[in-house]
Amino acid sequence: MSKVKTKILVVDDEINVGKSIRQAILSENFTIDTALSGEEALKKDEKEKYDMIITDLMMPGISGLDLLKTIRQERPETIVIMVTGYPTIKTAVQAIKIGAFDYISKPFTPNELRSLVQRAIKLARNRKDKKEDVLQPEMPSDLFIMKGHTWVRKERELLVTMGVVFDFLKSIRKITGIEIIDENKNIFQGEVCARILDEDNNFHRIWSPVTGRVVRVNEKLKEDVSLIKKDPYKKGWLLRIESTNLDEDLINLSDSLDKP
Q1: Is 58 exposed, middle or buried (0-12, 13-18, 19+ CB in 10 A)?
Q2: What is residue 132's predicted lDDT score, i.e. its pLDDT?
Q3: pLDDT band at 257 (very low <50, low <70, confident <90, very high)
Q4: Looking at the domain assignment, is residue 217 inside a domain?
Q5: Taking the mean position of all CA atoms in its chain, how far away is CA 142?
Q6: What is the Cα Rg of the chain in Å?
Q7: In-domain check, residue 135
Q8: Is 137 inside any structural domain?
Q9: pTM tops 0.85, yes or no
Q10: Residues 53, 41: contact at Cβ < 8 Å?
Q11: Helix or strand or coil: residue 68?
Q12: ∠14-70-102 over CA atoms, to 5°?
């Protein structure tokens, strides 16, 4: 009996970019089609009902964000991954709030894209099969979250603590290491602030939920990376940040009570 393949649509108005993305994720487990516009993507999706759509964010006509909104209305179970450049990271963060699974910013490596695709498929299958971890830590009610990615908690004035939500962590089977941005570095909302390494030597990017200066790094987490899964909302925190744009940043995040 043949295994059902995951159907993926790659959407980019630059044909060579679409081809390179397709080449990066080629697998016997996938069937991969391409489209050169949001309009073409909607026509193909109406016929094929894709499991995953990987789309450029900025395109003429129907943009990646418009495509996401339409797909979320018609088939919310579809995984949508946005491809973005630095100038549109803020829009990519907004796409997460609307319902994109994740985004990947240029430049990225084929391995980073493959890791993201595999993580998305694993999480989607677990949800479909209703497989949940036995010990799932409860998310505190005082957090703001980038859905499926990171959380932030106000401490005092403009000081915030941030970490990774358990939904993200449970999609990685075994975490073997972590790289975290250095103290006194400036970070913008949506930029990479850390990378998690798994047992297959895949790196998973962690996005900062706020803009500001890093004032403290959780050194204990570097010594014992298991803390990030054991206690993600307390001892497993990543960074303390002196925010510079907090009110505006929080607009792009969700309340933890609205986490589904």
Answers
A1: middle
A2: 54
A3: low
A4: yes
A5: 21
A6: 18
A7: no
A8: no
A9: yes
A10: yes
A11: helix
A12: 65
